Amino acid sequence: MIGKEAFKIEIHDFNISSIDALDNFYANNLWPVVYLLHDEIVKEAYVGETTDTIIRLKTHLKNSRKNSLKTFRLISSPSFNKSATLDIESLLIKYLFGDGQYKLLNANLGIANHNYYQKKEVYLSIFKNIWNRLRGEGVAKHSLSHIDNSDLFKYSPYKSLTNEQIEGLQVILDSLLNDTVRRTFIEGAAGTGKTILAIFLFKLLNSDSAEFNYRDFGNDEIIIRHKVEKLKDKLVLPKIALVVPMSSLRNTLKKVFKNIQGLKANMVIGPAELGKNKYDIIIVDESHRLRRRVNLGAYFGAFDKINAKLNLEKLKGNELDWVLLQSSKSILFYDDAQSIKPSDIPKDDFDALKSQKNTQIKYLRSQFRVKGGNSYVTFIDNLLNCKLKETNEIYTDKNYDFLLFDNIHSFVKEIKKRDKEVGLSRMIAGYSWKWISNKNGNLWDIIIEDVKLKWNSTNIDWINSPNAINEVGCIHTTQGYDLNYAGIIFGNEISYSKEKKEIFIKEKNYFDINGKQSISDPKILHAYILNIYKTLMLRGIKGTYLYACDENLREYLSSHVEQYELTETIIESSRLKMSGDHFENSIPYFDLQVAAGSFSELQKANLTRWIELPKYMRFSEDYFSCTVIGESMNKIIPNGSICLFKRYRGGSRNGKIVLAQSYEIQNDCFGAGYTVKEYSSIKKNNEQTWEHESITLRPRSFNNSFIPLQLAQHEMESFKIIGIFERILI
Description:
The chain is 28% helix and 25% strand. By secondary structure, it is of the alpha/beta class. The strands form 5 sheets. It has a 10-stranded mixed sheet. The chain has a 7-stranded mixed sheet with strand order 12-20-17-13-16-15-14.
C-alpha cells in the first residue's frame, strides 16, 4: 500500500486519559509508529518514534518540558518498519524546524541518512504525503522545496554529521577537556561543512544530555556521550558565544538561533562585542575574516576603543587578539583561501598561532556543498592559477552544471530560468564597477553591452531579498551562503595574458577601495582577487555559470569550460513559411521524430514539406530539417523544436551536435532509428590506418538523469552520422 492511503494520522489530547483510551492497533501491539507532541498556542513541538507507544507517551507526560504540550498526533501504517519510522522521524524534525512554525524540544536529529529497503521507492513518497497532510491540518506551512532553500533549513543543527565532521567534533571535545590546549583550528575549504559543525557544536553544548540522541554517531556513540557528559561536569552552564565577522551572515545566524530551543539570538555576536564580556568558550566562524587595523573606515574609532579597553597596542591589536584574551578556550573555523581584503588578519598571524603547542588542528577535506565534489574544487583552483594542460582540458560532470557564456543576454536569461525552476539562483560579480545606485536609484551600476544591471540594494541578507534575482551581488553579500546556481561575472579588473599564459589583474578597474587601499605589492592584490572568484565559484550547489567581460580571459576559460550554445528560437511558426510544395529559398523538412534521448523507434525518412530558410542565412543544398523530441538536449534544443541540419560530408565531428542513425535492427520495411547528441570519439591507430576505439553520444540537459550513450563495437558497424546541427528554426 503506497501513497496517501498508506498511513493514518490521529489527533488526541495529550493527557493520561487519552493515552489509556487509545484505540490504535499499531500503538497497542508494539508496532513502530511516529508521533508529534505540540502546542499551537506556545508553538512548541517534539517529534519521536517508538515501538512502545503507550509507555513512551506516559514517560513524556512526566517530563516538565513536554507535559505542558496540549496535543499529540499519532502516525501509523501497516507499511512501517523500524528503519522507516526512524527515517520519517528525522525528516519531520528537519523539515518542521525548517518550516519555522514551531520551536522543537528535540535536542538533535536522531538516526538519519541510513539506507533500508524501498527507502526511495516507497517511504519517501509516504513522507511527502504525510507532510502534505500536516500542511492541510495547519501544523506545517511551507512546501518541502521551499524549506530546502531556506536559511533555517540550511543552517539547522538538526543535521547528521559526516564521519569527517564527527572526527572534527571529537578533536574539539578532546581539546575542551584538555587543560593544556587553549585553542582548536578546524580548517577546510568553502563547502566542507565548517558552519554546520560550528552550529551543531553550539547546540550540543547547550542541550540537556538526557534529551540528546547519540545514536546517530554509530560506533562513536558511547565515546562521544562520555566526553560530552565529562565536559558538562567540568563546565557547568558555560558561557559561550558564536562570533561571526560578516554582518550579513551574522544577522542570518541570529535568526536561526532565535528559532532553536535553548539558544538565543544574542549568543551570535560580532567581534566588536568581545570587549564587553569574557567567555568560557568562543567559537569563531569564518575566522579568516577577522580584522586588523587596516582600511576600517568608520570602524576605526570603535576598534581603537576596544584595543584600549583590553590593554592592547593601538596599531597592533586585532580582532583575533580579542578572541584569545576574552576566552578560556577558542575554536576557530578557518580557510586562508577565503581571505579577500587587506583588513583581514594575515595568514602569517594564524600560522604563528597554529604552530604553538597549546593549539590543536583538524582538517575537513570532503566537499559536500557543490555537487561537483572535490574534483570540481581542484579544477577551479587549477583553472584560476593556470595549472591546467593547454590541450583543451574541458571540465565535465553529469552531477554539476558548469557553463561559460559568451553572451550576457543568455547569461542573465538562464540564471533567471534556473531561479524559476529551483530557486536561489543569483548573479554575482567581481568589484569592477562603482556602486552608484546606492546614492541614486535611477542610475545603473553595471553596463555590459546593452544590458544594464544594479548592485545589491541591501547589504543584509541580500540573497533572500525580494528583488535579488534582478540585481548583482558581490563577495560581501554572498560569502558564507549557499546558492543552487551561481552566475559569476568576471569583471574588467581580471584578464589573461596569452604571452605569459597567466591571469593578471588590472588594478585601475578594481573599485573596492577598502579592498585595495594600502596594498603596495601587486601579487597581494592578485591573490585577494583570485580568492574572491574562487569563493564565489564555490557558492552554487547545483551549478555555476560564468561570463567574462575581458575577451582574452573569456577565450582562456573557453579552453577548459563547456560553452553554452546560443540558439535563436523562433516561437511563432508563421514567421517561417512551410509548404507541401518546393518554393524559392526553401529546404526539405523530413517527417522524422528524432529522439533527444536514446535512438528513436525505427522509421523511414519521408520528405513531407518544405520550410523557408531564414533570410539572413546563405542557402546550401546540404541543408535539411526535422523535429527533435525529448529533454536530453534541452540546454540547447527545447523539446519539439524544428531544427536545421547540414548533411555530413566528412571531417571531425568531436564536440559537435550530430543527427545520428542506427541500422542495427533495420531492414527495408522498417527504416532506421535516429537521435541527436553531442559527439565524442577516441581513435586508435593501427599500422597504416585507424579505427574508432569508442564513440560516445552525450546529452546536454538540465536533467542529470540522462546518461551518455556508449556505443559497443558491434553497434558502431550500424552507426552513421547523417547531419551536423546548425540551429533551431522553430
